[in-house]
Write a structure and sequence with these properties.
The complex is a heterotrimer. Chain A is of the alpha/beta class. Chain A contains 15 helices and 20 strands. Chain A starts with 7 loop residues before the first helix and ends with a strand. In chain C, strands 1-2 form a two-stranded antiparallel sheet. Chain C has a two-stranded antiparallel sheet with strand order 3-4. Chain C starts with a helix and ends in a 7-residue tail after the last helix. The longest helix of chain C has 36 residues, at 102-137. The chains are: A alpha/beta, B mainly alpha, C mainly alpha.
Chain lengths: 599, 347, 329
């Protein structure tokens, strides 16, 4: 699940209520990406910017010893010490590894605890999946992707000096089945218990449940083995999600673990005042030699919550001494964008495309007429929709379901409509009708502006649009209800890892539809499509990427469940004393593992 | 007022004005001492007040500003027809890649006299005049509602004495102590859900009516207290006694004898309340319970424009200046009105 | 005097009870359930019921209210078994979102608002009263007109507008002041003051207008009264007459307004807090409403009401203390 938390959602200046576990905005991981150079330059003249050169590459899994060994490579010119401040609009929903599924939380969590695997990045666009706690990204024991084994590194210690064991990893996965800790990703969980809800049979170690789920064994303190009923070649990716971080049973404070996760990484929680500030300090028992990902240069991190995005952006633009060692994972809001192009500021902007695609979902249960869905695709003014939230800084017009960061991406455009829409085509398809459609939107300032742009645009094109505002905190809950009463709504989705398998099946497979909390927001339910999804899933790894891309185009040509609106982009700022602040392709925000404070 | 989290009556400063305004009673039985002017002709207190007001240059200037604002608001559709632009029209093609208006001074030009809104590309002039209409309507309607409730409650309390008076007084205390913002935040969505189904958009008039009702519900207390005080001081006067002796009913005494004698301070309250309502209405946008898109609204426009003060100062300037002038003019006019009605006025 | 206070306190308690009842009823009527909000995406009906039980909102409304009142008096325990949370008296509720008793949240947030209001009040009182007094004494001069003009302009300005312009000019553009922040006074008084200077200036300037106009009017009125004339005739110095006699008489209505003003503001200066990014009570309240965090809403609403009610009583007492003509009964 994946919708976006920090980025576009927060772009809304005063969107201070991204609460929600609501459809967990998620996560993302992944992907790859367009190297830093692929971004567009914004001109003041208002002409089109340069075409983006999207260089798509796949994140690859590396078993090379050089990549998998600690310590992490030192960054040129980096210095140890200092405290890095991260200014955020709203507090993290969850830091508990079992509940951590939003990119800003994953990056923060990654400073406190270590999962089995992790992404290694150096800012050049090279993205490698390597072992983090594990010595390598997982061994496919029988070569059939059904049995996977990880060996933990030697010498990894918790903040109290006790050793990290494979039993703690197993226990951590076990507790992620608990219904009260249900917000995290559940790939491994579902694979262990296929058919039905992931925790239908096993509900975690609480209330008398066993400590470890079926299919996980820990032959010794440094070995953990997963045995799945079906083949899952994506396991190394799934093991990079935070649910595989170790949690010692003795330190498990259940729903309060969120406020103070026990540290196995370079930092531990010093203080945490909900909605106000989180402070991290060094974990003296972390040994850099055991860690291939993190250099942990700063002595501490300080996260502050409760500022508005405009305040954050203006402070970072101004770069006052107190804010020079600060950054934010909140996109610069439209009002501050023009101030980021001047000398001294422009070089502190971190921008680039992310793995999220924003679409206008058409509720296919209600809008059954294919011609109306096609007409909507001709009608939407993607330029207006984008400019309402910051133009090119916010993204670029989309024509596909998957983002250009996905492996095997091929650009196509089924409708070939101009970016401002094609009224003649719309009129022809509507054939004299004026369909009444309810457009639901989140009630933040920026999303309201965006919805109003859409309303005006679609009204002019010949639709009768009713705007319905939904409180931002329950937006994804509401549109995620199968029987929701709305026809149109915008949503964003990003892959959990850079293959189509974390986009097409969760968002367009009708079998995934449940009563509440849906990701398939167009509620498209086509047996033929489900069969196609199964077919592509069973293709060899080499053919899968092309298979998903072909299916992407097929969905847009035959079923038209959405209007692809824009590929999301990140546009963040940092202070002048922050070093090595590059965009993480894995998470779509400024990375934290090898960042440093300039002394 | 310090924070705008409260409507007029809850903010103490207005309460302060009470002290002054209360002086302004002109009862026939209590003919004011002649003003400082050396008038030889005998004049009624109201005539005197009118004279004083006419001589006050500040009052004239502020009245002129208010008149112009009202005319512009009324003529908003006409301006739309003249320019051929609808307030919701979007000129997205005149925005650059960041969504900022192209050209000088926020896109000011012959087609768009005050430029364009960044992001949406709407015409600022049209948004402004239509927004002014909404804001003025809300402010006037709220002031009227608050005064009506306040006068009714105040007269009853002042005339009733005893337990009813005590109860009303206590009710005023409760209202004053109840946080307006929380109430508005909770109640507005509840009522919209009650009255409209999930597939209906509440019409703008419904949200506006809710805002006016909420304002009225929380802002009558000051007027009520003022009127109560006036009624208490008047009810024992000879002219009331006389009416009572002549067999007049309570209704007659209340509305025929008392009310005409206290309209002046009420008028002052209304004129000083209106600018407060304009300001608080703008503050509602901060918590997302103001007037909804696409109805143009001055308050929401200000809220949206503030962030642009450095990147597109023109967008911030026009609505900001408008509300400042409007509130200032109302305040000046209210002051002048009070001074002119105050027999001891030394101005 | 004692009787007066006792009676006022009794009335105050009645007021608070009514306000708490209304707030309770209000949020009971809110369409979305706090349990659903807390429970999250993959929630079944059973999960929601479980959360409701933990929050204690599965009970009928009157029962919930009594539980709340009992909690304030003797404390209570939320939930049961593994999820139980103790909340000692005075228990204003337990926030499961923050995982702490509401009283703790209040004690964290209240000092911020108190600091903003206290400093702001000092500025607006000093500025307003001195401007008003000097204007009164120099009536008709350029200074008088200027002072009154500026203060009227201040009164016509909005806190969000003026505050943001100050932010741009003093913080973003010139860096003369740091972005506002809160440091506890006990930790570092200087940083406390520097961090809050901007909100103080904003509140001070905007609010001083009312005090300037009021104190000017009061001074003018008092100066023309008999006792001032008598004092002058007795040969008291002008300065002594102005400060001792006239000011003292003029200050009474100012105290009334200042008291109520401060009382109202202590309940939360939401807009000031959000403009300057300060985590005070006002912000806590609005956030709590948005998250349907009912315990926090209840507590902050009641606290705000307490401030206003207490301010009213204090004002009456002060009135009697300052002005010998006023008698309490």
């Amino acid at each position: 699940m994946h919708v976006r938390p920090a980025g576009a959602a927060d772009r809304a200046g005063r969107e201070n209520t991204v609460r929600g576990r609501t459809r967990t905005l998620t996560c993302g991981v992944l992907a790859v990406a367009l190297a830093a150079g692929g971004c567009t330059r914004t001109t003041d003249s208002g002409g089109g910017g340069e075409e983006e050169k999207a260089k798509t590459q796949t994140g690859s899994i590396s078993y090379e010893a050089a990549d998998n060994q600690g310590p992490a490579k030192a960054v040129d010119g980096a210095s140890r010490g200092g405290t890095l401040t991260v200014m955020q609009v709203s507090d993290f929903e969850h830091l508990d590894p079992a509940r951590n599924y939003v990119n800003v939380q994953q990056v923060t969590g990654g400073l406190i605890y270590r999962a089995l695997n992790g992404y290694k990045e150096d800012g050049t666009g090279k993205l490698l999946l390597v072992g983090d706690l594990a010595t390598d990204p997982g061994k496919d024991v029988n070569g059939d992707c059904k049995v996977w084994q990880f060996t933990l590194r030697e010498g990894v210690k918790y903040e109290d000096g006790s050793p990290v064991t494979s039993k703690d990893v197993a226990y951590g996965i076990g507790r992620s089945f608990a219904p009260s800790l249900n917000e995290g990703p559940h790939y491994i969980q579902q694979w262990l218990y296929p058919g039905g809800a992931y925790n239908a049979t096993y509900k975690g170690p609480y209330d008398g449940g066993k400590a470890v789920p079926d299919g996980i064994t820990t032959p010794d303190d440094r070995t953990i083995r997963f045995t799945f009923p079906e083949a899952h070649c994506d396991l190394p990716y799934a093991a990079a999600l935070p649910t595989s971080a170790p949690v010692p049973a003795g330190k498990d404070t259940r729903d309060q673990y969120d406020l103070r996760p026990f540290s196995s990484g370079p930092y531990k929680v010093k203080s945490y005042q909900r909605d106000v500030a989180l402070e991290l300090e060094r974990n003296p028992n972390w040994d850099p030699k055991t860690d291939p990902l993190r250099t942990a240069y700063p002595d501490g991190f300080r996260f502050t919550f409760g500022l508005e995005s405009a305040q954050i952006a203006e402070r970072l633009v101004a770069d006052a001494p107190a804010d020079q060692a600060a950054l934010s994972w909140v996109d610069v809001p439209p009002a501050v964008l023009p101030r980021t192009t001047s000398a001294g500021v422009a070089d502190r902007v971190v921008k680039g495309p992310t793995q999220y695609t924003w679409v206008l979902d058409i509720n296919t249960q209600r809008v059954t007429d294919l011609n109306i869905r096609k007409a909507l695709n001709y009608a939407v003014d993607k330029d207006a929709v984008l400019k309402a939230i910051g133009g090119q800084a916010a993204g670029s017009p989309a024509t596909t379901l998957m983002s250009p960061t996905t492996a095997g991406f091929q650009k196509y455009d089924v409708f070939n409509a101009p970016v401002n829409g094609d009224k003649a085509k719309v009129t022809e398809l509507l054939a004299g009708k004026r369909p009444k459609l309810v457009l639901a939107h989140s009630n933040t300032e920026i999303r309201t502006q965006q919805a109003e742009a859409l309303r005006k645009n679609l009204t002019d094109m010949g639709f009768d649009i009713v705007m319905k505002s939904i409180d931002n905190s329950s937006y994804y809950d509401e549109i995620g209800r199968k029987n929701n009463p709305y026809d149109l709504y915008l949503s964003g989705w990003g892959s959990d890892w850079p293959t189509g398998s974390t986009v097409i099946p969760p968002v367009y497979d009708g079998r995934e539809i449940v009563a509440e909390g849906n990701n398939n927001l167009s509620y498209l339910n086509e047996a033929a499509l489900s069969a196609e999804i199964d077919r592509v899933r069973n293709l060899s790894a080499a053919e899968q990427d092309a298979g998903w891309m072909a299916l992407d185009k097929k969905i847009m040509s035959e079923y038209v469940p959405v209007v692809p609106c824009y590929y999301d982009a990140t546009y963040e700022l940092h202070g002048s004393k922050v070093g090595n602040a590059f965009l993480s392709d894995a998470f779509g925000i400024i990375q934290a593992n090898t960042i440093y404070v300039k002394q | 007022m310090s924070d705008m989290s409260h409507p007029p009556s809850l903010s103490a400063p207005r309460e302060a004005e009470a002290v002054d305004a209360a002086v302004a009673v002109n009862s026939p039985a209590d003919s004011p001492p002649p003003g400082p002017h050396r008038d030889i002709v005998s004049r009624s207190p109201n005539q005197l007040a009118w004279l004083r007001l006419k001589r006050d240059r500040t009052a004239l200037a502020s009245a002129l500003v208010l008149l112009v604002a009202t005319l512009v608001a009324l003529a908003a559709p006409l301006i739309g027809r003249l320019t051929g632009i609808d307030p919701t029209d979007k000129f997205v093609d005149r925005l650059n890649d960041f969504g900022m208006p192209v050209g000088y001074a926020g896109g000011i030009g012959a087609d768009h006299l005050l430029g364009l809104e960044p992001g949406s590309g709407r015409d600022i002039l049209l948004q402004l005049v239509h927004g002014l209409r909404t804001s003025l309507f809300i402010a006037f309607a709220s002031a009227l509602l608050a005064s009506t409730i306040g006068v009714a409650v105040g007269i009853v309390a002042g005339y009733a004495r005893g337990w009813l008076d005590g109860l009303i007084n206590w009710f005023i205390d409760v209202t004053l102590a109840f946080p307006f913002l929380i109430f508005a935040l909770a109640v507005i969505p509840i009522l919209e859900d009650r009255f409209y189904t999930e597939r209906e958009a509440p019409p703008p008039s419904f949200r506006i009516a809710l805002i006016v009702a909420t304002f009225g519900l929380f802002s009558w207390t000051y007027t009520a207290r003022l009127v109560r005080g006036q009624v208490i001081s008047l009810r024992e006067r000879e002219f009331v006694e006389a009416a009572r002796a002549a067999g007049a009913g309570t209704g007659h005494i209340l509305f025929r004898q008392l009310l005409p004698n206290i309209w002046a301070p009420i008028l002052v309250t209304v004129s000083l309340n209106v600018p407060q309502f304009i300001a608080v209405e703008a503050a509602l946008a901060f918590v997302n319970i103001g007037v909804t898109e696409p109805t143009p609204d001055l308050g929401r426009m200000i809220y949206n424009s503030i962030g642009y003060v450095a990147s597109d100062p023109w967008y911030t300037l026009f609505p900001g200046l408008t509300i400042f002038l409007l509130v200032l003019a109302f305040n000046l006019f209210g002051d002048a009105l009070r001074d002119s009605l105050d027999p001891r006025s030394t101005r | 005097m004692v009787r007066f206070i006792v009676r006022r306190l009794l009335v105050a308690v009645a007021t608070l009870i009514v306000i708490s009842l209304v707030t309770f009823g209000l949020f009971f009527a809110v369409p979305s359930s706090p349990a659903r909000v807390m429970c999250g995406k993959n929630c079944t009906a059973e999960d929601i019921a479980q959360v409701e039980q933990r929050l204690g909102i599965d009970q009928p409304l009157p029962r919930q209210y009594l539980d709340f009142v009992r909690g304030v008096a003797v404390g209570r325990t939320y939930g049961s078994g593994d999820f139980s949370r103790a909340c000692p008296a005075p228990c204003l509720g337990y926030s499961f979102r923050n995982n702490q008793p509401v009283t703790e949240i209040i004690t964290q947030r209240l000092p911020v608002t108190v600091s903003i209001v206290a400093g702001g009040a000092v500025v607006w009182l000093l500025l307003g009263i001195s401007l008003g007094m000097i204007s009164a004494l120099r009536r008709g001069t350029v200074f008088d007109r200027l002072a009154i003009g500026i203060s009227l302009a201040g009164a016509s300005m909005q806190v969000y507008f003026f505050g943001l312009i100050l932010l741009y000019v003093l913080v973003y553009a010139t860096g003369l002041l740091p972005f506002p922040s809160y440091t506890p006074f006990t930790e570092n008084p200087l940083r406390w003051a520097v961090g809050l200077l901007l909100p103080w200036m904003t509140l001070g300037f905007l609010n001083s207008a009312i005090y300037a106009r009021l104190s000017r009017a009061q001074m003018l009125e008092t100066l023309s009264e008999d006792f001032v004339r008598t004092a002058r005739a007795k040969g008291l110095s002008r300065r002594r007459v102005h400060l001792r006699h006239a000011l003292r008489a003029a200050i009474t209505p100012i105290v009334t307004i200042a008291g109520l003003d401060i009382g109202t503001s202590l309940g939360g200066t939401f807009i000031t807090e959000s403009i300057f990014g300060l985590q005070g009570l006002g912000k806590a309240t609005v956030e709590a409403v948005q998250f349907l965090n009912l315990p926090v809403v209840m507590a902050t609403v009641l606290l705000a009401a307490v401030f206003i009610v207490v301010a009213n009583i204090v004002v009456d007492l002060l009135y009697a203390a300052i002005d010998p003509r006023v008698r309490l009964n």
